[in-house]
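A reminder before we start the practical. When you read a complex entry, don't treat the lines as separate problems. The point of joint prediction is that each chain is placed relative to the others, so the output describes one connected object in space. Small molecules and nucleic acid strands, if listed, are placed in the same frame. In the example below there are two entries. Take a minute to note the order of the lines before looking further.
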Amino acid sequence: MAGGVGSRFWPMSTPECPKQFIDVFGTGRTFIQMTVDRFKGVVPPENIWVVTSEKYSGIVKAQLPDIPVSNVLLEPCRRNTAPCIAYVSWRIKAKNPKANIVVAPSDHLVTDVVEFQRVINSALQFVSETDSIVTLGMKPTRPETGYGYIEANLQEPSLRNQEIFRVESFKEKPDLAKAKDYIQNKAFYWNSGIFVWNVRTIINALRIYLPDVNDIFENMLSVYGTDKEQEMINSEFPKCENISIDYAVLEKADEIFVFPANFGWSDVGTWGSLHTLAEADSAGNNVIGQNVRLYETRNCVIHTTQERRVVVQGLDGYIVAEKDNTLLICKLAEEQRIKEFSAE
Amino acid sequence: MAGGVGSRFWPMSTPECPKQFIDVFGTGRTFIQMTVDRFKGVVPPENIWVVTSEKYSGIVKAQLPDIPVSNVLLEPCRRNTAPCIAYVSWRIKAKNPKANIVVAPSDHLVTDVVEFQRVINSALQFVSETDSIVTLGMKPTRPETGYGYIEANLQEPSLRNQEIFRVESFKEKPDLAKAKDYIQNKAFYWNSGIFVWNVRTIINALRIYLPDVNDIFENMLSVYGTDKEQEMINSEFPKCENISIDYAVLEKADEIFVFPANFGWSDVGTWGSLHTLAEADSAGNNVIGQNVRLYETRNCVIHTTQERRVVVQGLDGYIVAEKDNTLLICKLAEEQRIKEFSAE
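Here is the predicted structure of the whole assembly.
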């Protein structure tokens, strides 16, 4: 899933080139490239599908040259995750009705890829044998209010896989007090937004819980892979309800399981999380940029492009982010206002 | 005089395009253009001479199209003000041995141009009748430690011009304690670096007090205005002693006068002085740039170029200056370190 706009990372992330297409850590690989890299040896490139906005098709093809152009699906507008998943599920079903599927956001970070692959392979094995919906639950490390939580029924491990448990309930993004309670409870996990299932299961679920959206894509079976596909999608996709897969399906369906895992995951949703995750100097600064000099500066995130020269003196706890013709200087503590700051 | 490098205004001022060639106030006129504008009606363009570095000849000709190209003198290297003044004095003498001359830096601000012109005309009249060296002394408004001071002998106004007094002594840039004493004393004025004299007077003074430098330019009389001039200057100018006209002549010569004046002068030598002089918003911010948005920001100087978008939140008392590929963020109180910050 690569249709997001990453507005919380402005100005580094812009509507023209959002977060998933950016080398946030200065490693030379963008989020979407790291996401694809993560599946090397698990899924061959020809089985990787990218669903993104039509305006990002050029970026996707440039950043992921190994993925067949026909596997890049283009949404004419944003309709949240449920229509996105319905579309690609039908495309996959048309090719392989027995497919097992991992649904993953393209703008998350995973630091332990070996463990990630072990978990994914184990979950794929599980869904190949059962009609289960598996969500990956992340062991919480802090009372994060920016994530949804999953409550597992730890008394009921699956018989087929002792690492997988029934979901007791899904929890909305909590306030800090609730979040602190949640992380005291061993049964609570962060909802990573990574799902594993087989194509029959998700499509059955869509037929039951989101029939109108499902029909739109089921009725297009004859045009998938033809010249008519994009034209039809452009006319039909906007008719889809704007709804997340969590609301539409997961919170309603039975046979929902959670696979608690711990592979160094973050959605890197904010400058603050980048500040936490990226390598910091001895003064607690994350500096991304080749020509940055700091004096009496602490706990800052400095993010600039290669060609720019930056000198910062006397800042503590700020974001200094610069891209193209835009500069943002703001307190890390105020970053939730970046949408306001970035408004034209 | 337009050979300075304006290093205290980095990154707005760079060795490639220093302060005198920059529209610091966003008025559409650069310092050197304002300096020339200031003499409209006093000196015709063909009598205005610019002495600058050879690498700025293109900028000068572009910014001052009305000044004859032959009046733009190019120094092959920096030798402070004495050689600069010796060179242009001989060039002027070759054209008009009776010329009266105003020597002015090209990177100062004058807010009351009417009073400036009255003072200049009065001083020119005075030096046309006497062999005097006149310096313009500025009424101090604060204990500035960045300026030199002139002590006038207020008991001895000139008979020819009651506004002009003999100089008692020149004072180096003082420390704050001294500066506070100075401004208590009615006889002390800031040394503006603006001088008025006739060409005979300055050349006689150079012959006496700086003979080696004087000889270099006197010996070139035959090549001035010819193809050979630049070539000769390039080989001879570097031989000049690196010395200011203040040390070389003013502090030694007799017949030195000061014309106390008050026409809203500043050398705008620092970001802090720009902060004091430029128009500020209600929060005390000076903003130069078309697309700058401030939130909870006070007492800052924000200086950017037209095409750039800048959002600043939560800064108090900082310089945010951006030009080409360079960004500086530093406390106004630390601006004396800008040379350190700008070092490659």
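Discuss with your neighbour: Chain A has a mean pLDDT of 95. What might explain this?
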